[in-house]
Amino acid sequence: MRDTRAELLAQAEVLVRGRGYSGFSYGDLAEAVNIRKASIHHHFRTKTDLAVALVRAYDARYDEALGSILSLQSDAVARVEAYGRYYLAGVEDGLGCLCAVLAIEMDTLPDVLRADIAQFFDKHIAWLERVLADGCADGSLRPGLDPAATARMVVATLEGALLLERLLAGSAGFRSTLATLCDSLKPPRTGSRNALSSGRDDTI
């Protein structure tokens, strides 16, 4: 049985991540899903309702991803690298981070959507801060690292690299940035940088 709502969310996410919030219409979405534009309103009465549903679904997928990283990776640098690979997937697919793309148009967005986007980034910064604090405590990160400030730097670096490398050097450029970022977190005694493999995590 066709799940029209799920199809609408999937196609709307691609449209927003590729064009921005103001860069697509319900007409574009209706064409992508092959339904009448009026039918979209049955599932999402307004474009705001659709965008809120998109952000909350995206946030839920990331919650699962962050939990998976904690269970599969044992040290802070490996966790940051695994986190960065989700951004790498965006570079390879030619799509921006949903919440970052929306944040570009922050001044024109409704309050409920702005709040959900801010909560998304606050959650990621808090998660990274905990990861980095654990790494400082177990000695796997360089001495003197400030977990709070570094968590914000990690998010800013990855979001910026996702934006730039979609235009410039693609996945190779992003991998280089991610490797340099991870190296900057390691204690001085760590050896030479290990090249990142060409693999990628599931797109989220």
TrEMBL record:
Occurrences of domain HTH tetR-type (ranges): 2-62
Superkingdom, taxonomy of origin: Bacteria
Pfam families hit by this protein: TetR_C_13, TetR_N
DNA-binding annotation, residue ranges on this chain: 25-44
Keywords: DNA-binding, Transcription, Transcription regulation
Glycosyltransferase among keywords: no
Alphabetical list of InterPro entries matching this protein: Homeodomain-like_sf, HTH_TetR, Tet_transcr_reg_TetR-rel_C_sf, TetR_C
Gene3D superfamilies xref list: Tetracycline Repressor, domain 2 (1.10.357.10)
PANTHER family referenced in this protein's UniProt entry, alphabetically: HTH-TYPE TRANSCRIPTIONAL REGULATOR YJDC, TRANSCRIPTIONAL REGULATORY PROTEIN
Protein name: TetR/AcrR family transcriptional regulator
Organism: Methylobacterium marchantiae
